[in-house]
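Researcher: Here's the sequence for the chain we discussed earlier.
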Amino acid sequence: MNRSARRAILPLAVLLLALLCAFAAWAQMGADNKEPGSVIVSIYRIAPGKHVAFLKWMADRDAAAKQAGVPSTQWYVHVDGDSWDYVAIAAESTAEQDDKVDAILKGKGMATGFKGGLELRTLMASHTDTYARGPMTSAELVEMAK
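Model: Thanks. This is the structure I predict for it:
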């Protein structure tokens, strides 16, 4: 397979992996739910030399989310293959939950909102966020498609 074909296939493979992980994560977060849930799948490429700072930044936010009662984000670390470093899968939060997390972070002197987003961007080379629903079986998806 030539190099340009591999470059085209790799992003699709990462997206497929992320969606599969999202479905598995949602199964753990809401196994009793009959309705498929919504998750956010984030794929991160970290700026050179910023891995530890990125992980600490995220760990601080995860701790605040836990304190606010938000389900834990599931993290996956790159081992081999494509160029991403981390995949995070999180249940979609409500505005009320987001406000609680922001209040906790502000209470600890941490940046939120636009300022927090700019701070995070200093740690990343790139990232994507994808909203997904699941988990569902292929038969359930067929039914939805009718």
